[in-house]
User: Which sequence fits this backbone?
């Protein structure tokens, strides 16, 4: 048995889905990726150089089709936004929307979020991290794939600035219980606000496509804002 077969596999919190990319999305990668795209490299990013200014950095993991990410960037020109996504059609759609909206304070990374946080995001550099409707992995045997875990919370806390926030939303009741338990056991965060609603009261964020899908299934929404402890 060689080293390859005995090496422990990394547990992924996502499934990489190539999907069907449209011609317009493909053109976005050809023409807009040089504007909005950031290549993954195992070296720290210099955000001031990347955006050409010094501003609070908001990072979003798993932005889907990117429409709400673009909406947030357009509504907050005093902040700079980083979006991480592994679904290429969603990235292409996001770039098209960003170009249409004329936003300049947005950059996108097509890579695993944990590796990006570990190798590209400097310590204490983020003002906020958004994690909206992550994959709930509802089957019990898949719970180990959920991104909300002690190691993830430690990593996020290290990358957030003092008093930075971790903002989470889910429409799965079982995952909400998991999030409550995981954060209650972490000494790196305190809950600043927790809100349950039926889609009418999102907590400091736009309503998302995944949220609307959950609401159509009769799910309730749970939002949190956790603040990093000093």
Assistant:
């Amino acid at each position: 048995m060689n080293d390859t077969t005995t090496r422990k596999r990394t547990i992924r919190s996502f499934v990489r889905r190539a999907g069907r990319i449209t011609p317009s999305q493909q053109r976005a990668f050809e023409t807009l990726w040089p504007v909005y795209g950031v290549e993954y490299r195992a070296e720290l990013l210099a955000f001031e150089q990347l955006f050409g200014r010094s501003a609070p950095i908001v990072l979003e993991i798993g932005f889907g089709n990117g429409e709400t990410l673009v909406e947030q960037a357009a509504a907050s020109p005093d902040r700079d936004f980083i979006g991480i996504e592994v679904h290429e059609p969603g990235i292409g759609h996001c770039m098209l929307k960003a170009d249409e909206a004329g936003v300049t304070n947005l950059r996108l990374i097509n890579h695993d979020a944990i590796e990006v946080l570990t190798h590209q995001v400097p310590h204490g550099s983020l003002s906020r991290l958004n994690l909206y409707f992550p994959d709930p992995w509802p089957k019990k045997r898949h719970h180990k794939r959920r991104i909300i875990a002690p190691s993830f919370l430690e990593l996020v806390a290290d990358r957030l600035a003092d008093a930075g926030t971790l903002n989470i939303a889910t429409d799965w009741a079982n995952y909400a219980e998991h999030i409550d338990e995981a954060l209650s056991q972490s000494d790196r965060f305190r809950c600043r606000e927790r809100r349950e609603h039926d889609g009418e009261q999102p907590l400091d964020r736009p309503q998302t496509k995944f949220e609307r899908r959950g609401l159509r299934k009769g799910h309730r929404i749970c939002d949190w804002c956790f603040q990093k402890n000093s």
